[in-house]
Amino acid sequence: MANLEFEQDGVSSPFSYTPPTHYTLKIESFSLLKKLNRFESGEFDAGGYKWKLVVYPKGYKKKNVEDHISVYLEMAGAESLETGWEVFVDFRLFLLDQNKGIYLMLI
């Protein structure tokens, strides 16, 4: 569905017909996870599509990222969609620092 844009006094505020979706991926042991090259979460629904989080604990070497964790939002089953399709996503990632009890928000 289309989004709406509301403008007042030069400030633009977007609206959406689609409610936000929340998905939590809890990593019990990062030391076990970092032994993998790639980890995929379970699929979840958001905005009428199926998604998954893909984690590269050692970085995504195809993008020349090393020594950092890489996290991507990936559409599940995208290969079955028609050529030229587009989906616009407002994706926010929150990482919990369990030691400090605070979140790092990546937009």
TrEMBL record:
The record's InterPro entries line, in alphabetical order, gives: MATH/TRAF_dom (IPR002083), TRAF-like (IPR008974)
Which CDD domains does the record cross-reference, listed alphabetically?
MATH (cd00121)
Say which domain of life the source belongs to: Eukaryota
Q: Where does the record place the MATH domain?
A: 20-107
Q: Tell me any Pfam family this protein matches.
A: MATH_2
Q: What is this protein called?
A: MATH domain and coiled-coil domain-containing protein At3g58340-like
Query: What organism is the protein native to?
Result: Prunus avium (Cherry)
